[in-house]
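Project standup — Tuesday

K.O.: blocked on the structure for the chain from last sprint. Re-posting the sequence here as requested.
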Amino acid sequence: MTNSVNTLEHRDWALTKASTVEGYMSTDELTWLYDNAYGQSVEMGSYRGRSGTIIGLKLKETGGHLSCIDCFGDAEYKIFQENIKKSDLLVDVYRMTSVEAVDHFDDHSLDFVFIDSSHEYDDTLEEIIGWLPKVKLDGLLCGHDYNHPEFPGLTRAVNELCIGFENPVDSIWCIRVSEFSNLQRDLFDLLRKTKRDLSRKETQYNDQLVQLQGAVNYYEAQFPQVQGAVNWYKEQLTQLQGVVNDYQTEVENYKSQLSTKNQLIETKKMSIQNLKKRIDQLKDRGNSLQLEVEAMKTSKFWKLRSLWMKIKSFVGLAREEP
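H.V.: unblocked you, prediction finished:
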């Protein structure tokens, strides 16, 4: 009777200490934690130390040990340390996510695990699947905020994975670990991994589809510009073709003019050749006449004429000649 009274007195004292710490757990939930925590215990989502204080005081009284896991910010961690120190508690602290911390504990090494961290569906699944093997057979795996309207993912994860779980008070959920619990966990883990792989592949395919659609949209957007450029080049080509045709016409005209000029040149060449022949003929005629003159100079007639001209000059008759 005395031990029972002492236990109740200690519980009331512990509840009073824990209630001074800011947090979200009701008095009934704190009482349940005190009554059920034992041995080697882990708490996830310590916040400012409200639940950690009640569990830590119980374990300090009964000879257990508490490890607290939370991604504390510096300010929150300082407040947590101050609150734990006020109750003169010694706890191990892991400043990391619960999924990261799971590898720091051996399988079947824990008696009591309390989850009050992410509250998201996928995270809660990871936590239950990861931490269930760490709990000894007949140990307790439990958590907070079941059926809370703001955390439907957590409630869904507990419903899917923890067959036979209990909801002993307010938003506390708990399951006593058995061989069936581990078998169920392994089966669900396999299904979850398969679903996650399919989801990842679906995401990859969707990403690829989005990229392809983006490429299609890009090229569709570029098409009018490209088509416009093609039309512009076609217009330029048509204009250039017209210019080429004009040049070809001019070339044909130049060819025709050149042919006419070539014919004229040939005609001139023939005329020049004819003139050369005529000149040669005239030269020949001149030479012939010169020969004739030379011949005449040596003739008797020419000599008489020359003598007559001298006589006329001598007697003055040459002036009367016209």
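K.O.: great, moving the ticket to review. The mean pLDDT is 86. Residues 179-297 form the longest helix (119 residues).
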